[in-house]
Write a structure and sequence with these properties.
219 residues; 2 domains; 8 helices; elongated
């Protein structure tokens, strides 16, 4: 441990760069909804592989620990990034893109209500998920799978034949802007989920008049 701290002191630039990458990585995980534990594991692997590649390259010239040249460290980090990314593709988590059978839906107030819900909510809260191409690429596949799994566990509009524990909060969640969440439409993704002011008003009215989707009509 003492030797490790000594190396970090000798390679202050590398330590600072690592801390910056860690902060950015965890922030990115929060934005896309990736579980922090998964991102922490990726960052740890990335750091270890980067350091291993750098030490292997530097020892070919000088076996003694030396402050890491920025160019050498950056190129080692790039190689490590590619290696960790490729290794992540072998992790089976997030590869299950199944859509179970539809066993029932709410008694929608009207057709427009259902159409707007399909656009804004069904990709996480139904058995009609349209899995995007990046749902096959780790670590994004991990985040997408977790979003769908969590969403279906809270309320699944395709399995209305069984109790939905948070269904009566649908109206309130849409009203306060929590559904769909910000990461769902972040960076231009799922533009169809962005509702205009008029569409939002139509949806809120429809949810208020659909049994089970608001606290005042939970029965």
């Amino acid at each position: 441990m003492e030797r490790l701290f000594g190396l970090l002191r000798a390679n202050r630039t590398a330590a600072i760069a690592g801390a910056v990458v860690a902060v950015i990585g965890l922030a990115a995980a929060a934005v896309i909804g990736l579980p922090p534990a998964f991102m922490a594991l990726l960052l740890l692997m990335f750091g270890l592989v980067t350091w291993g590649i750098y030490r292997w390259r530097s020892r070919r010239l000088d076996p003694r620990p030396q402050p890491a040249p920025t160019r050498t460290l950056a190129s080692s980090a790039l190689v490590a990034l590619v290696a960790v990314f490729l290794a992540a593709q072998a992790v089976p988590f997030g590869r299950d893109h199944s859509n179970p059978p539809i066993s029932g839906e709410p008694d929608w107030a009207n057709v427009a209500t259902r159409q707007l819900m399909v656009r804004a909510c069904f990709d996480c809260h139904s058995n009609e998920v349209v899995w995007p191409w990046y749902s096959n690429v780790a670590p994004f596949s991990w985040a997408v799978w977790k979003h769908v799994e969590d969403g279906r566990n809270k309320v699944n509009y395709s399995e209305w034949d069984r109790p939905q524990r948070e269904a009566d909060e649908s109206l309130e969640e849409v009203k306060k802007g929590s559904m769909p969440p910000g990461y769902y439409t972040f960076g231009g993704l799922h533009n169809e989920g962005k509702l205009s002011t008029e569409e939002l008003a139509t949806l809120l009215d429809g949810l208020a008049n659909t049994p089970g989707l608001s606290e005042r009509r939970a029965s």
